[in-house]
Amino acid sequence: MSFDDEVEKLKKELESERVGDPARAERVAALERMRELVERGIASRRIEFLLEDDEDADDEPSLLVLYATTSDDLGAIFYEDGVYTFESDDDDYFADVPGTSDPTRFARLLYESLKLGLPAYELDLGEGG
C-alpha cells in the first residue's frame, strides 16, 4: 500500500468518525441539495438560504430562509424521513409548505409561498422600520 493510499484510508476513517449520526448526515446532505435547487429556482436579491447544523445543539439541521437586507428569519426548511417541509413563524405573510418527498415540487411550492408573502412583508417592513 502506497503512502497516498494509507493517507486516504486514514482520511476515510476520520471522516466516518466525524459524521457521527448517519441520519443527521443524510438530512444535512438533503438540505444542501435543496439549497442548490432553491438558489437556482429563486435567484433573488431578496432571499438568502443558510444551512444551519449545530451538532452540539439538540436542534435538527435546517435550511434557514432569510430576508437578505435585514437577515430576518422568514422560516426554515426541514428534511426528515425523505420529506421536505417549510415552516414559518410569520404566518401573516408566508404559508407553510406541507411535506413532500419531491424536491422539485417542494421548490415550486416554496417559490409560490415566498412570492405571495413578500409584497405584504416588504410593505409592512417599510412602514414599521
Detailed description of the structure:
With 129 residues, the protein is of the alpha+beta class. The chain has one domain. 49% of the residues lie in helices and 23% in strands. The protein has helices at 3-19, 22-41, 103-128, and strands at residues 47-52, 62-67, 72-80, 83-87, 97-100. Strands 1-2-3-4-5 form a 5-stranded antiparallel beta sheet, with helices on one face. The longest helix has 26 residues, at 103-128.
Question: Which helices and strands, and how do they pair?
Answer:
Layout: H1 3-19, H2 22-41, E1 47-52, E2 62-67, E3 72-80, E4 83-87, E5 97-100, H3 103-128
Antiparallel strand pairs: 1-2, 2-3, 3-4, 4-5
Please state the average pLDDT score.
Answer: 88
- Percentage of residues in helical conformation: 40-55%
- Can you tell me the residue ranges where pLDDT is under 50 for at least 5 consecutive residues? none
Q: Structurally, how many domains make up the residues?
A: 1
How do the helices and strands follow one another from N- to C-terminus?
HHEEEEEH
Distance between the termini: 65 Å
Instruction: Give the DSSP E fraction (strand runs of 2 or more residues).
Output: 15-25%
Radius of gyration: 18 Å
Instruction: Give a short account of the largest sheet.
Output: 5 strands, antiparallel
Number of helices, counting only DSSP H or I runs of 4 residues or more? 3
How are the strands of the largest sheet arranged? 1-2-3-4-5
**Tally of DSSP β-strands:** 5
Shape: elongated
Structural class, judged by helices and strands?
alpha+beta
